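Minutes, project check-in

Agenda point 3 was the complex the collaborators sent over. CS summarized: two entities, 627 residues total, and the question is how they sit relative to each other. Sequences were read into the notes so everyone works from the same version.
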Amino acid sequence: MVSQNQSPSDVKRSGIQSVITIDHATFSYDGAAVFSDVTLGLQPGETLCLLGPNGCGKTTLIDCILGIHHLDTGRILIRGEAVTALTPKQMARHIAYVPQNHTKHFSYTVMDVLLMGRTPYLPYYASPSAEDVARVEAVLDEFRLYHLRDRDYTRLSGGETQLVMIMRALVQDTPVIIMDEPTAHLDFRNELMVLEAMVRLASQQDRTLVMASHFPNHAFYLENEGVPVQVAFMNHSTVTLSGGPSQALTQANLEHFYRVSTQVVEYRVPREKRMFKQIIPIHTLDKDI
Amino acid sequence: MAPGQRAKTIGLYTLLVILPLLCVLISLFLGRYPIPVSEVFSVIFSWITGERPDPTHFSVIFHIRMPRVVLGVLVGGSLAVSGAAFQGLFRNPLVSSGMLGVSSGAGFGAALALILFTDFFFVYPFSFGFGLVAVSLCFFIGRFTASTQAITLVLGGVIVGSIFSALISFLKYVADPMDELPAIVFWLMGSLSRAEYSHIYTAGVPMILGTAGLMLIRWRLNVMAMGDKEARTLGLNVNLTRIFIIVCATLATAGAVCVSGVIGWVGLVVPHMGRMMAGNNNKVLIPVSFSTGACFLVMVDNISRLISTSEMPLSILTALIGGPFFIYLLKQTKGRQW
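CS then shared the predicted structure for the full assembly.
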């Protein structure tokens, strides 16, 4: 379990124990720098909330961690191994990925889609075995979504689809799960269902999550639920690491990065008997930087 | 897996083996040369026991009907499996086994051989060779964009296909209208009438190799259909897998086309019949497609043999018979699993 009071800044960032180490990473596309000199470290059980405006390079950074793009300079290590040295199969045993937009081309059953999470453990010519099916069924049970097992996944709602993608990542049994805007296009309830799923993942077996998001409140939500969260702002091709949500998501920082005037509030919900922190947006500021 | 599901799986695979065998058996009884049903049984029985049957009947059944039917199974199965694999690989239900220009390349090779040589033998290596050349050209075009992305390959396939179609038209234009032109036209409409055992031994090799490769990798086709980025993060070497699938599908299709000519419909619509009956999971769809394609082509070829004294080209019949059957399937399944 995750300890509630541990502040991420207390965690030593030696880089040796880190699950993910990003070391002076620079990447440019057609000569234009997407990001430069990014340095980050993530410990087991920690969740990184990657915030930043549209087009700031969050997805590119994620693609570099996944080994899809290669850095110009610097390096990225996954549990001490350089991502550039890993085969897709080895990589898929370290990191599972939840896509931002999943395009459905063929009507597979939910079971078929979830079984794909077992790919990195199968020989090239093999199909999933009865044990793989059992693993998927256990995850479906855990999410209380067993009734989706034989449903046609092209007929699922956006929220259900996202949960299927998260379950597929879980079936992959990796220490790291990366999610690119997992709550994009979801309604109020489905958004919360996805966040609840994330809390469940983060509190299991020291799993490390990376989440790109447009919503700073998501960082507070995770913190409220006791997940150790690190917030990183990505803007103007650099990453500013600002520590835990309470330290990072200050009114001054939000004004600076989003050009939004806000108020961070803290309140006790009587029937929950614990504190909830949240950002209340007040109004936008002129974008004259 | 639940015991009921296991039994269902075993039942399905048994059916997939038995149905084509049944089609083969039925086909041995059918033909324009009249052999009574009991005589066919006695010829088959004496062949098994090693006795000497009536030589004429033996020859009709085992040297005319049998190779044709076996080739029909291989060609129909190969085309359908390649079509299903390409549809999954390119994430597009509208592509067929001829997607990357195999059929037009092979058609050009055949037409060229028919014009250059008097011996029909040269048609086989020429059509097979040019089928492979066409697909290699698609790859070459894809190379210009530094990636083997699906869309560049599809576009390359369209371009290469139309270039070879134009070349076929040119050859038709210069061909001798008395004998070469009809031979080209007939070849381009597909037929199994030249079937011999030697075809099974030579063209059967690429067909069986290609089909076996696709059978082995069929579950990974599901993962490929998730898109390149997801397939990669699920642990697949996307480029290598894609090349393997294309090589297998090309071998199978080129092997089929070089002995049977261009048979339309099977590589496009039979996989969809499979999708309607068995769903989109390639683990089941690929074997179902093979079986359906084999049964379908053998039965259509039977009709082609029986319908008139001169043989009807297969592409005419595959569409005329397949079309109504497809509509019937659509009505029955309402496209549920499609």
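Noted in discussion: Residues 1-16 of chain A have pLDDT under 50 and may be disordered.
Follow-up: revisit at the next meeting once the mutant set is ready.
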